[in-house]
Design a protein that fits this description.
The chain has 7 helices and 6 strands. By secondary structure, it is of the alpha+beta class. Helix 1 packs antiparallel against helix 2. The radius of gyration is 40 Å and the shape is rod-shaped.
Length: 306
């Protein structure tokens, strides 16, 4: 069946097959590359968020906790109420909550997963505990990135160690008797104590639904396929024009000329100026025409006797 098709149809079928093979190779070879690129884009945005939260924690610890609030209320309380804004983790969570109201950060989640937290909401689950323990056992490890499965779907996460670097943190986290009474009243005396300076007590974790990463990878893949498709269309148009004007049209004219010659209706040579394969063929059929004319003349001059 393929042999009976016209040259233009054959060419387009071959081009289409090549395009499909390229798309398949793109799917096999570029999918991982594009996903890694998408992960890096999400990771870069998550790193900016973690750096922002770290800056908020440092500001709260050095400027708020050790500065203004300590001068106004050394017991970290006002009217018997614990001053939550003196807690770096609280300030970071509040700032992040405001960031989540922006569309570009609405899918991101922030948690200070802690082994022994003051507030039960910060308690590390089993997966997060493994991450924290890895940070504790490998002090040089400064970052962990990967995927985790939860009931709602996979999450892409980035984690950094949460280390006690300021003495001011130990006011609330060393022993219950040193903690402000308002803190004990608000959070109790069972969690968040026994911390030590330079100890890794948790991990700052930014997570985002994995579907966002995969969607970004698919978007990049569609862009690549779109570029390939556009290139394929341009190449197909150029090749079809070349095929039409350089091969099909000359062959069609040669076929018509040959029919005319076979009926004796043509006394001209076939003209094809380009010195390509079609030109060589044109020269050959012209010589064939001359040979046929010579043979016919010889027959006319020496007819056979019946």
């Amino acid at each position: 069946m393929f042999q009976n098709l016209k040259l233009g149809v054959k060419l387009n079928l071959i081009l289409l097959s090549v395009f499909l093979i390229i798309v398949l190779i793109n799917g096999l070879l570029l999918s991982n590359v594009l996903q890694k690129n998408a992960e890096q884009e999400v990771k870069d945005k998550a790193l900016v968020l973690i750096e922002t939260m770290t800056s908020v924690r440092e500001y709260t610890s050095k400027q708020v906790n050790q500065g203004t609030i300590q001068k106004l209320s050394p017991e970290l309380e006002i009217d018997g109420q614990f001053i939550k804004t003196s807690v770096p983790g609280y300030s970071a969570r509040e700032v992040f909550t405001n960031l989540q109201k922006r569309d570009q950060y609405s899918d991101f989640f922030y948690k200070e997963a802690t082994l022994n937290p003051t507030y039960i909401r910060d308690k590390a689950d089993r997966f997060e505990t493994e991450i924290v323990e890895r940070f504790r056992s490998q002090p040089d490890l400064q970052e962990q990135v990967g995927f985790r499965k939860i009931s709602a779907g996979d999450l892409f996460y980035i984690a950094r160690p949460l280390q006690i670097k300021s003495e001011s943190c130990l006011v609330c986290h060393s022993t219950p008797d040193r903690a402000p009474a308002s803190q004990i009243k608000t959070y109790g005396d069972t969690g968040g104590f026994g911390w030590e300076l330079n100890e890794i007590v948790g991990a700052q974790m930014i997570s985002v639904p994995a579907s966002k990463v995969f969607a970004e990878a698919r978007r990049l893949q569609l862009i690549v396929i779109g570029i390939l498709a556009a290139g394929f269309i341009v190449a197909a148009v150029i090749l079809n024009l070349f095929l039409k004007f350089s091969i099909i049209t000359p062959l069609t004219k040669m076929s018509k000329w040959s029919r005319d010659v076979s009926t004796g209706a043509s006394d001209t040579d076939f003209e094809h100026k380009p010195n390509d394969e079609i030109g060589v063929l044109a020269a050959s059929v012209n010589r064939l025409k001359v040979s046929l004319e010579m043979a016919m003349n010889m027959l006319k001059q020496n007819p056979e006797n019946p």
